[in-house]
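Lecture 7 notes: from sequence to structure.

We start with a single chain of 166 residues. Read the sequence below before looking at the structure.
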Amino acid sequence: MEGSGLSYIMQRAIDYHKQRPENFRVSAYQPPTIYNDNSKENRNVVFADTLEAIENIVLFSISNYFLRFSNEYKKIHGVDEFDNNWYEYVEFGTTNPLTILLQRNGFSRESATFIKKHKNEYVVHDGSTDELRLRLSLLNCGNTSVMTEAASIRFNAPKLFLEEDA
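Now the structure, written as tokens:
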């Protein structure tokens, strides 16, 4: 919330355990030990716990808050969508409309990043609907994960793809 980067957050978590080394748990199935800063395993546990807290507590809470706000806003103003939808920004981890569109339709973050990097090859602005669409050539892009996801998504969301590769 202060704008500190992940590196700073991780360093603060390590510092916390250095100052309070007692009752450190590597796993719930092992008895508590003393935190050892020289142990890669101990440091990795701190990193994993910190990332889990960010994902499951902070992002989940913020996402739910913005989801409720977005739903109420839509209901009050009688709209289906609106600009500056913070729920989507938090949920998808970006403000990029293409990435949000791709992830909303089922692409993973990694595949969405690949498609965004190759936007000129695989993304087309459909003038008739004023929407972004994907070229069928994405199904043969050479990236196995993207091709697999694209085939499945084309089956479930065919309108996302242009029927004729332009």
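The beta strands are 123-126, 131-134. Keep this in mind for problem set 3.
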